[in-house]
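Handout, section B. The chain below has 407 residues.
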Amino acid sequence: MTSRERILAALNFQPVDRLPKDLGGMRSSGLSAFSYQALRNALGLPPRPTRIQDPHQMLALPHLDVLDALGCDVVLVEGDGLTNAYEEPGRWQPYDFNGRIPGAQVRDPRAYRTDPDGTLHLGHEAQMPPGAYVFNTEHAGQPLVLDGDLPRPDLREVRRSLTAGLLTDRQIADLRDTCRRVRECSDRAVFFWGPLSLNLCIHGYGGLAVFPLLCLEDPDFVHELHALHLEYALQNIRALLPAIRDYVDIIGTDADDWGNQKSLMASPATFRDLFQPYRQRHNAEIHRLAPQVKTFLHSCGALHPLLDPIIQTGTDILNPVQWPAGGCSPQDWKDRVRRKMSLWGGGVDSQHTLPLGTIAEIEQEVARTVRVLAADGGYVFANIHNLLAEIPPEKIIALYRAAAAAG
């Protein structure tokens, strides 16, 4: 099987020749830029520039030789045309993060500045102090509102913003050409994430301290807001998808984190009423225009009580499969979604076993987890979310080699 055939067979619950795997196919299955060169060294690969895919999370864009060495089957295309399927030297410029990542490359060095104490700034609000590994903002950029009326977006401003985000003919042509070139030069599955997303989120407008309460206080307003997002998302889908559908395999539809470490951020009833109808129509339009393409929802946390409603939206793939949250097991998740929806991630307990366990303990847990999640198909291996800077390369290699041995 080619990598693409392997991924698509798994997502269609068909037999595969080996376990399909992902590293960096999207921005929640990636690798810290701070550990990228150490991984290359441990794999015996020559040095290559650490390209920063996601500056806030400080994720490296993996080169193809890393994907080859770990047996990974996915390449990405993002909405601005960024890809790792082929080299784009004109996109990258040197910036070493005040000496912390020698030889690093970014897309716009002007976005960064450095304080005398070594604190790095990205834009106006995000900062990364010395010793930190990601950029952060106060309350993660979400205002903490504890009194007074709940803030809400002006729907006229929302409409103006969404109108500005409609794809132009030039953007569509450029993305078509990029996706076609990726298909022609790679036999890996192509993951597209960008302007086809719906952009609904339980911690959206106003953040976690506001939006779940707004859903309870004024559901009619939230319906109006979500209908507006759907209207514009469908316009972009109808404009772009016919141009790229022959060249992509997976489409990211949203990053909408409904779970925390123990429970949901809001009730299943809120999801069913205010989110599910819009996600159903969004998925249905993608499937109508491109029946062979799989839709992918990223949602973190203790999601087990929400798996049935997510399945009912027509979502094909759920990530990152954070089964330790909420006290569930891989078997609990698999039993709920078996042959109804694929799982992407969940390969090891990334908060306990991976950072704190021995390599032998990692290998044992990966073997147990893969046997459960890959049963009856519908599974692509990856970590639960990104591989952080604190994870040594020996554990990353052990993680992927254990998956290969188990699958």
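Note. The chain has a mean pLDDT of 97. Compare this with the example in section A.
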